[in-house]
Each structure stands twice: as structure tokens, then as C-alpha cells.
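can u pls check wat happens w/ flavin-adenine dinucleotide
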Amino acid sequence: MNNFGYLRAGDVAEAVRAGQAPAVRFLAGGTNLLDLIKYEVEQPAALIDINRLPLRTIEAHEGGLRLGALATNAETAYHPEIAQRYPLLSSTILAGASAQLRNAATNGGNLLQRTRCLYFYDPASPCNKRAPGSGCGALGGVNRGLAILGASSQCIATYPGDMAVALAALEARVQVSGPAGARTIALADFHRLPGDEPSRDNTLTPGELITAINLPDEDFSQHYTYLKIRDRLSYAFALVSVAVVLRLAADGIIAEARIALGGVAPKPWRVPAAEALLVGQRPSAEAFGAAASRLLAGAVGQGENDFKIELAHRAIVRACWQAAAGTPQSQTDKHIR
Ligand SMILES: Cc1cc2nc3c(=O)[nH]c(=O)nc-3n(C[C@H](O)[C@H](O)[C@H](O)COP(=O)(O)OP(=O)(O)OC[C@H]3O[C@@H](n4cnc5c(N)ncnc54)[C@H](O)[C@@H]3O)c2cc1C
């Protein structure tokens, strides 16, 4: 058993101050962190409980919405304004985990959930993300669920979450408070590729606390979808997921397209050049196929996960059709038609 300290932070300043100590972790819903502690993947010196901080509000902000870091995934998905104005986000959150988990999981914690790579969860195995310099068991090992894009020779883990994939397509911004003050990070810059430092999943600096996630004032409520392909129809992480938002002109021509992939890379994966291929086009198999090929340019399998390249191509094309037709994937009837 590993002893650890516990502090219940009274305000953001106290949390940030305490968060600067070595090996401390913020505790939100605890649905990922406590598992990691039980598996001895994380061995924090202290937990800073942030649950009493006033960061649970969902409110109007610069024409868009500000989601408190401590609003739960359920509160966020079922918030009437999110369901109406940002249905992609509601749908994506509801594709994840289970009702019980979504009631406990918070928006901030969701962004920071860690990979589901088996080697990361097994302290007896080599894993450069968990124990820098120990090697990567997944290379040449069990890698069916792992990355085909953005990996390195040090790490092929994926970022497992759903919500961040929708937030990437919506171009959300993450608001943080830290020892150097407050700053805002574009979602695209929030998670990082492993390179030769896989232990760092994101661009937060020590002691930085997520306080909110800002959704811009944009309307993609007509043409959107979140298509999640997984081994079973619920309570499973994505093998491949695709968030698509489109803006169609009155004549049906695509005026704007955003496509983000989940389950295939260490971060939500967007390729602006692929999206640009769709602008000025009519929805068609050729246009969507070309965008999919561009998105997946450079994709590499590691053996067991080779199938993901073709699966992702097909999922992208299907998701684009669903978005164009305005018939998004239902997250309550999860059968894929
Ligand atoms: C069985 C199971 C199935 C799941 N399935 C899915 C799924 O299909 N899709 C999906 O997306 N997710 C899934 N999840 C993951 C789940 O969504 C996350 O565990 C959850 O969102 C994490 O939020 P939390 O508030 O519990 O975070 P915690 O566990 O409390 O924290 C996670 C990490 O974030 C840090 N942290 C938390 N809040 C902040 C903050 N405000 N600022 C800075 N750091 C912070 C913590 O220190 C910790 O490192 C699943 C989880 C389980 C256990």
C-alpha cells in the first residue's frame, strides 16, 4: 500500500499553489485516477480534491458557451443549450463510457484521461509513457487498439477519449489557471504527440488546473455526426471514431468541413488540408474518399492494428455521408446502418 496525502482545495488559488508540489494530482470524478492508483500506475504523493471549487457552471460566453471543468459529462450532454446548439458534443459524450460513469466523470478529467494501452496499465511491462526509458511493449506486442497515426518509436498509445474528438471539430479552447496566471489553449494544441517524451500527454505545465472549456459561437447543428466503431455497441473505447461537422450552402455545395478522428492517434486527429479538399464540392463518394485518403496519409499499422487503416477510411466516408444528409449517428440506437 502506498500512503498519500489529501487536501480539499477551498479555491482555485489554493489548488494551483498545492498543485506545484512534486507528484501531486488533482482529484475530480476519480474515475480514471483512482483506477490508476489501484493499478500502481500512478503513485501520487498527495491528492488535491478540487470537487468543492466553483467550476461546475455551464454558461454563456462570448456568444458561445463556457463549460465548467467540474460539470459532469452527463450534465454537459443533457444541457438543453448544448443539445440544441452543439448536438455533436452531446452525441459524442453519450457515445462514451456508461451512464454511471458519465454522472461522475468531469469535463476537465475527461480531457486528461490516460491511454488504455495494456502495457501502460501493467507495471510489470515496459512502457515509456509510464516509466520513461523502459521501452515499449506494444511495439511487436498486443497492439490491436493502438495508433496508426502520430506514433513514435517510443510509444504507439492512443488517446482514448470521445469528448475531445468533438471538441477538436468544434475548435474549443481550454481555459487553465496556473502558477504563471491564466491562459487559454486551443484544443488542437492541448494534447501532444509522444515523440521522444511519451510520458507527457499534454501541454499543461506543472500546477496548471483546467477551469473551463469554451465553445465558440458557431452553428453546426444541422450537419454533424459522431460515428464510433468499437468491439461492442456500448461501454467500450473507440477502435476508430469520426466527428464531422459540415456547413452546406443553399445549393448543397460544402462551404466548410471539419473532420476529427479518435482512437487512431495519441491526440484527436485533424488534417486541415483534407478538410479543404471538400470545400466547394458537392457531397460525393469521390470527394469523401479523397478527404479520407488525405486524412490517413502516412498511416502505419503495427501488425495487429493494420485493419484500422481501412476501417478508418470507410468510417470517415460513412460519417461524411451521415453529416451531409443531416441524419447523425444515434447514440441511443447504436446500430450502425
Ligand atoms: C470502465 C470505463 C469505461 C470508460 N469508457 C469511456 C469511453 O467509452 N469514452 C470516453 O471518452 N471515456 C471513457 N472512460 C473514461 C472516463 O470518461 C474518464 O475516466 C473520465 O472522463 C475522467 O474524468 P474524472 O473527472 O473522473 O477524472 P479523474 O479520474 O478525477 O482525473 C483524471 C486526470 O485528470 C486530472 N484532472 C482532473 N480534473 C482536472 C482539472 N480540472 N485540471 C487539471 N487536471 C485535472 C487528474 O489529476 C487525473 O490525472 C471510461 C472509464 C471507465 C472506468
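The domain at 5-52 is CATH 3.30.43.10 (Uridine Diphospho-n-acetylenolpyruvylglucosamine Reductase; domain 2).
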